[in-house]
Amino acid sequence: MSSGLFISFEGIDGAGKSTHIDSLAQAFRAQGRVVTLTREPGGTPLAERLRQMVLNDPMDAMTEALLVFAARRDHVQTVILPALARGDVLLCDRFTDATFAYQGAGRGFDWETLAVLEAWVQGRAADGATAATAVVLQPHLTIWFDLPPQVAAERLSTARVPDKFESQPLAFFEKVASGYARRMDADVGRFARINADQTPAQVWQDVLQAVQSKGLLTP
Ligand code: TYD
Fold first, then answer.
1. Ligand 1 centroid distance, CA of 219 (Å)
2. Is 218 among the domain residues?
3. In total, how many domains does the chain have?
4. Ligand 1 atom 20, closest CA
5. Cα 154 to ligand 1 centroid, rounded to whole Å
């Protein structure tokens, strides 16, 4: 991955990631870093088309999982790996933890099968490595905006027309949140869990603190 830095942002719908992603991009640029801002599902013309389907068309959980991983494959190959090879700071609005949280915990698709797809799609096999021994691309840091689903639902009720996921009931987001917790438990060092039930200014301070304490941004 050379000198590139890969940070992903996660949370249930309504957790309020967007403004902080933009602010963090500004903070890195102010220190002379080149920033690539991207999102999932999406980030390439093909993946953006798949995003429209995933967010709007009814489909079973396996189809959803396969489409988000197809989108991810194109995104990893054509945007993420080249940006990291250039040494960019790559800020990605959602990545694979969202698939485990939404398709896995939320919609009940098999967790182990998702892990196999993750290894396939993000595996970068060295010479002679099999899928099982290949290095699996992961963000260096994942910032999880953790917000009680009830609070998120109140925030979303005043927002724009909801998409397929945003219109899910509270119980769905409780499951999604538990999926994020399970992913964090399996890889604690990669995660910074931010209490998103605070003012935007307080949340921003916590985001900045999380990135600085990992030594990724100088205070
Ligand atoms: P989101 O990132 O919240 O974008 P916006 O702010 O424009 O609504 O929307 C993406 C939605 O896609 C969100 O509801 C989560 C869902 N999603 C999945 O279900 N699986 C995935 O793997 C990813 C990346 C997202």
1. 31
2. no
3. 1
4. 99
5. 18
